[in-house]
């Protein structure tokens, strides 16, 4: 089980006590925050986006872009080994769900309509992420 984090094995009671209600609903119950409501949607600072549940680094600000979909979007994770991909047939759709590989937290979905760099759009709920601003961060529009 090398590479897997013991956070994935934590009981549901641990997550209920550790996360707020919205984080628990999205991260542990595969919910979705309302579009255009996330605190990280318009974040333009330089830094890393970590998993809310286990703090594993998932995305770099350099891969973030404005897709117009209502959720933070990235064209690639920091490393493909930090993301777990699952088929999702919920809500009458066929999608690929993305989860943190270390703790199995629901992050969002990945779509094949991203920018030319990778062609992928990792559409992620803000509550699934913690942003750590780098020291050399700059704010721009």
From TrEMBL:
Gene3D superfamilies: Peptide methionine sulfoxide reductase
Alphabetical UniProt keywords: Metal-binding, Oxidoreductase, Zinc
A cellular-component GO term for this protein: cytoplasm
InterPro entries: Met_Sox_Rdtase_MsrB, Met_Sox_Rdtase_MsrB_dom, Mss4-like_sf
EC number: 1.8.4.12
Pfam families: SelR
EC class (word): oxidoreductase
Domain MsrB: 12-134
NCBIfam families in the cross-refs: peptide-methionine (R)-S-oxide reductase MsrB
Protein known as: Peptide methionine sulfoxide reductase MsrB
Organism name: Vibrio thalassae
Underlying gene: msrB
């Amino acid at each position: 089980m090398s590479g897997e984090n013991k956070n994935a094995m934590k009981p549901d009671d641990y997550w209920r006590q550790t996360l707020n209600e919205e984080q628990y609903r999205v991260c542990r119950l595969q919910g979705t925050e309302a579009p255009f409501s996330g605190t990280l949607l318009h974040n333009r600072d330089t830094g890393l986006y970590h998993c809310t549940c286990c703090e594993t680094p998932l995305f770099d600000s350099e891969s973030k872009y404005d897709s117009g979909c209502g959720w933070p979007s990235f064209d690639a994770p920091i490393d493909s080994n930090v993301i777990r991909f699952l088929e999702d047939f919920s809500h009458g759709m066929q999608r690929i769900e993305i989860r943190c590989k270390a703790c199995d937290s629901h992050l969002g979905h990945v779509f094949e309509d991203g920018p030319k760099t990778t062609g992928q759009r990792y559409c992620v709920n803000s509550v699934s992420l913690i942003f750590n601003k780098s020291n050399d961060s700059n704010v721009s529009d």
